[in-house]
Specification:
Distance between the termini: 36 Å
CATH superfamily: Ribonuclease Z/Hydroxyacylglutathione hydrolase-like
Strand content: 25-35%
Number of domains: 1
CATH topology: Metallo-beta-lactamase, Chain A
Helix content: 10-25%
Shape: globular
Radius of gyration: 16 Å
Largest sheet: 6 strands, mixed
């Protein structure tokens, strides 16, 4: 098994971390949260010789899922995730994009919903799926136990946590997701998040001001 690698493409005016996860040896991989700027995403994939297997979504907000349908059609890829509780968000991407003045984003219905306890994979890289509501009702994270790495979407950030003032947000659920799903993964687990730099779970547990008392 080759080393798991990740590349980040900031997309949309929200500078969302569209992430390419791939095997260093085979160049097979997946793309997580293609929120928009699909031409840039496709160009980056082609320039680096990545062979995409699927599109994975952490949740249904427009900056994470708005480019998924276009990318699916361009590259003939299945859209996998998030949890079905995010269906209302995925059905309102175009309406939300109009409010923000962003063109080209599309509603999308996944080819496969995900549930807690399932796994997704490419090549020999297996990721466990955890349902982590709070920022969005159907938010999921992807955890690769073998290499101590997680993609946590907008649940946790370096020095912050996901917003809960958006439709479907719930602060108590978010805190429970971090306490009961992320913290048990272990302090040494590194993560990529939906915006900004990533980090390690232990560092956030110790120093993140939003997590005091957890």
């Amino acid at each position: 098994m080759g080393k798991l690698q990740a590349g980040i493409i900031p997309v949309t005016p929200f500078q969302q971390n569209c992430t390419i996860l791939f095997d260093a040896d085979t160049k097979e991989g997946v793309i997580v949260d293609p929120g928009g700027d699909v031409e840039v995403i496709v160009q980056t994939i082609e320039e680096n010789g990545i062979r995409l297997k699927e599109i994975w979504l952490t949740h249904g907000h427009l900056d994470h899922a708005g480019g998924a349908k276009e990318l699916k059609e361009k590259l003939s890829l299945d859209v996998v995730g998030p949890h079905k509780d995010d269906l209302p968000l995925l059905e309102r991407i175009e309406t939300q994009a109009e409010k923000y003045g962003i063109e080209g984003l599309q509603n999308v219905i996944p080819d496969r919903w995900l549930e807690e306890g399932q796994t997704v994979s490419f090549g020999e890289h297996v990721f466990e799926v955890y349902h982590t509501p709070g920022h969005a009702p159907g938010h999921v994270i992807y955890y690769n136990r073998a290499q101590g790495f997680a993609h946590v979407g907008d649940v946790l950030f370096a020095g912050s946590v996901g917003r809960t003032d958006l439709p479907g947000g719930n602060h108590d659920q978010l805190m429970a997701s971090i306490r009961d799903k992320l913290f048990p993964l272990g302090d040494e687990v590194g993560f990529i998040c939906g915006h900004g730099p990533g980090g390690r779970i232990g560092e956030e547990r110790r120093t993140n001001p939003y997590l005091r008392g957890l």
